[in-house]
């Protein structure tokens, strides 16, 4: 299996190194062979090749069996003509990674860290399914002058259908409760979204569907996070709501994500940013990257056993208190990684 | 002073009746005379005149010295050809109510109700300044077919300038810290927004300015709500973030808002909805409507003394434990109102 490794910027390279060490240890005794090849991306792409998404990188991603991405961006490239984020958007579009899956869980051991009261947040376990290749992120026309600017939020019905089907399928494998988030009292795109959800719902009679306005959903994620099972929404709302939801566990350092295309390759990355302030200090929490790697094992390679083992090892080390700074501990990135690998063997 | 009273739907009429009784008691001994005239609006407008914003209502609002609005909407009108919400958007646009001001405070007495841990939320006191008459809510063109839908997010620079100036002025009267929220890494409108904020910031050198992406702001509102003083943002982001922030006090029943036009009339309303499930039961919390009325006294009529008295009476009653159901008490809407009026005399 060829894995394209885009370590990126900031803490990206550190947490990627940790995840690959864990992957190698975890897959040592399986028959499948993994090859990990690094490619420049984001700020690192600008530095190496003058472009956040160099040709070589996009080509390698297209040919890979899966992609691991660390994190990108940083003040160094804020004034670049093409910023690291542009590379990320371009990569999503080029690979047609339309389905971004962000599981939000709050393990009991993290309850003390959550900003939310324990009685409210305990047991939180839901998935945000975000449309990732359309909407206002990519809609044309757009324009920017000194006098006026505009963006276009555009959705074709087939773009809504495929992400909604994906969400229904995920819901079928869980608690079978889907919340579709829109702003159908204001937006034309949301009206089409809601109509499409209602039509497709008939194909999944075992799943219950509820519609929420995005402003109401933004409230409920904080007020009643345990009521959600699967949330499906369009690109911009998904950006905002999944980031909001990511604060529930009290640290971003534990949340992975997966992005799937219709037929081809998938990309796995933490949902947090590149944290330039703590980069290169060996203090970043690699759990989000390690769990992104286990999502890869499950969703791209059907290797649930190895994924289970790695996750169990991770949680065991966390429960023993060998935790990084963001979790209130003193373990360095490499120490935590060593401990996980030791547990695995 | 002519006050146009739009009680609206659901709990609107009950909380409006309460606020007007309190207003009358509070202004009994001042020389200014207030006249309160009710007009149909929202679902009530559809029922009375076949339109959520009847001509008579819009005309009365244009001629009034201030407008009090209860709440609108409900399942009864969900299938109406023109829904109650359309009337609200049309009213905002017709009166040019471009500046929506939503103060978010968490009084110590509400800390037990907040979903957020006390150590994090204690002392929260900020204002969301939301642009209310432009952006994707009103941008043209927009289209909806079976195959595709689109909306246009459009901002003219003068629309950004006036709301940003308003926010700077509000910040000058507070802690002088302004956070401008955008998505400038993706949207053309946000790039113009950020550029405009930076230009106007030079006119207000005493105010410090920080830019945040909307996804980051959605996180920080929960993680570090006490770090905010004034937030300024565009229409859709303001909708989502101000609703998210409204959960901090643990009940929506205490949060007022004001919407200002460039020269003319202002509108005052609670930020919550019409709560059809508890309508007509005399259990709704009228504090949000009473505080909206005190905002009117302050911002439209410079009657800070009366406003202070009413607010003090409200908080005194709250602290004595005469509170409605949403606050964990047993007081009926009318009992709470009686208690406030008694305190005033
Ligand atoms: C970096 C940015 C363009 C990106 C987005 O808005 O999609 C990020 O916030 C994310 O959620 O992956
Ligand atoms: C009812 C709806 C159109 C409205 C809005 O989105 O502006 C409401 O949510 C609000 O915030 O006042």
UniProtKB/TrEMBL annotation, chains A, B:
Species the sequence originates in: Jeotgalibaca ciconiae
Cofactor note: Binds 1 Mg(2+) or Mn(2+) ion per subunit.
Pathway(s) where this gene product acts: Amino-acid biosynthesis; L-leucine biosynthesis; L-leucine from 3-methyl-2-oxobutanoate: step 3/4
Metal-binding in keyword set: yes
Name of the gene encoding the protein in the UniProt record: leuB
Annotated site location: Important for catalysis: 137, 183
List of residues binding Mg(2+): 215, 239, 243
Binding-site residues for substrate, renumbered to this chain: 92, 102, 130, 215
Domain Isopropylmalate dehydrogenase-like: 2-340
Single Gene Ontology BP annotation: L-leucine biosynthetic process
Protein family according to the UniProt entry: Belongs to the isocitrate and isopropylmalate dehydrogenases family. LeuB type 1 subfamily.
GO cellular component, one term: cytosol
Superkingdom, natural source: Bacteria
Main location: cytoplasm
Documented EC number(s): 1.1.1.85
Name the UniProt record assigns to this protein: 3-isopropylmalate dehydrogenase
């Amino acid at each position: 299996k060829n894995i394209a490794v885009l370590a990126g910027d900031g803490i990206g390279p550190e947490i990627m190194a940790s995840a690959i060490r864990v992957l190698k240890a975890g897959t040592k005794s399986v028959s499948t062979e993994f090859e990990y090849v690094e490619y420049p991306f984001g700020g690192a792409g600008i530095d190496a090749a003058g472009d956040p998404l160099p040709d070589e990188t996009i080509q390698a991603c297209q040919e890979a069996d899966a992609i691991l991405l660390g994190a990108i961006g940083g003040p160094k490239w804020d004034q670049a003509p093409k910023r690291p984020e542009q590379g990320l958007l371009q990569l999503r579009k080029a690979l047609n990674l339309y389905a971004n899956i962000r599981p939000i869980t709050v393990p009991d051991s993290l309850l003390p860290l959550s900003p939310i009261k324990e009685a409210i947040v305990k047991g939180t376990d839901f998935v945000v399914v975000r449309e990732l290749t359309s909407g206002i992120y990519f809609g044309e026309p757009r324009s920017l002058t000194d006098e006026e600017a505009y963006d276009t939020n555009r959705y074709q019905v087939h773009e809504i259908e495929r992400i909604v089907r994906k969400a229904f399928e995920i819901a079928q494998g869980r608690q079978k409760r889907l919340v579709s988030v829109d702003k159908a009292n204001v937006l034309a795109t949301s009206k089409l979204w809601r109509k499409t959800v209602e039509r497709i719902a008939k194909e999944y009679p075992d799943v219950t569907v509820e519609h929420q306005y995005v402003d109401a959903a933004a409230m409920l994620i904080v007020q009643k996070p345990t009521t959600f099972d699967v949330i499906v929404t369009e690109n911009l709302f998904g950006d905002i709501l999944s980031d909001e939801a990511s604060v529930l566990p009290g640290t971003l350092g534990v949340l992975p994500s997966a992005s799937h295309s219709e037929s081809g390759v998938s990309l796995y990355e933490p949902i947090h940013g590149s944290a330039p302030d703590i980069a290169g200090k060996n203090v970043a929490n690699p759990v989000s990257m390690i769990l992104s790697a286990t999502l890869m094992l499950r969703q791209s390679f059907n290797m649930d056993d190895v994924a289970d083992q790695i996750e169990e090892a991770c949680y065991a080390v966390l429960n023993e208190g060998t935790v990084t700074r963001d979790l209130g501990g003193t373990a360095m990135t490499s120490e935590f990684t060593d401990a996980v690998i030791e547990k695995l063997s």
